[in-house]
Amino acid sequence: MNRIKIQFGDEFNRIGFDLERTIQSIFRPRPVNPMFACRDCNWIPQMDIFETEKEVFIWAELAGVEKKDLGVEVNSKAVRIYGYRKEMPKPTEGAYRLAEIRYGKFERVLYLPSPVDTEVISTTFADGFLAMRMLKLELHKTHKVPISDE
């Protein structure tokens, strides 16, 4: 009869933790293009892009980020959202039993589904959410061009 060796303790817990972390990293959202990934960034905030016929909306979940530590850059094709989340103060005594919240620098570059007018953008930041509303450029609008004699 074959016997199976069962081992409990620190080694078992470490393997389970490593496996869980590996599985979570597979499903964690990543920037669309790794070329634009921030090498010094410690975390990647979750974001949504929503599109209507005339507008593009972006919502970013940025709990714990202060407005002064947040930056947004926009061109007609992409949005860059970056900043810093400070670590929460903790008691000097004790040890972590679960640590999932990431702190430090973050950056996301999102490619827009349609070109937007960079002059018509509104943003709000409240309750840990950044909301952006951008007007799409009219691509199929025809402009009449005058022709000169010379």
Can you walk me through this structure?
The chain is mostly beta strands and 150 residues long. It has one domain (10-87, 102-136): Immunoglobulin-like (Sandwich). It has one helix at residues 10-27; strands spanning 47-51, 55-61, 70-74, 78-85, 104-111, 116-126, 129-136. The strands form 2 sheets. The protein has a 4-stranded antiparallel β-sheet with strand order 1-2-7-6, with no helix packed on it. A 3-stranded antiparallel β-sheet has the order 3-4-5, with no helix packed on it. Strand 1 (47-51) and strand 2 (55-61) form a beta hairpin. The relative contact order is 0.19. Mean pLDDT is 82; it is low at 31-36.
Please provide the ordered H/E string of secondary-structure elements. HEEEEEEE
Q: Major sheet: order of its strands? A: 1-2-7-6
As for the CATH topology, it is Immunoglobulin-like
Label the CATH architecture: Sandwich
For the secondary structure, the number of strands is 7
Total domain modules: 1
What Rg do the Cα atoms give? 23 Å
Which class do the helix and strand fractions yield? mainly beta
Kindly estimate the percentage of residues that lie in beta strands according to DSSP: 25-35%
Helix content: 10-25%
Terminal CA distance reads 100 Å
Tally of alpha and pi helices: 1
Short structural description:
The chain is elongated.
Give the key terms.
mainly beta; single chain; three-stranded antiparallel β-sheet; Immunoglobulin-like; 1 helix; 7 strands; four-stranded antiparallel β-sheet; 150 residues
What is the topological layout?
Blueprint: H1 10-27, E1 47-51, E2 55-61, E3 70-74, E4 78-85, E5 104-111, E6 116-126, E7 129-136
Antiparallel strand pairs: 1-2, 2-7, 3-4, 4-5, 6-7
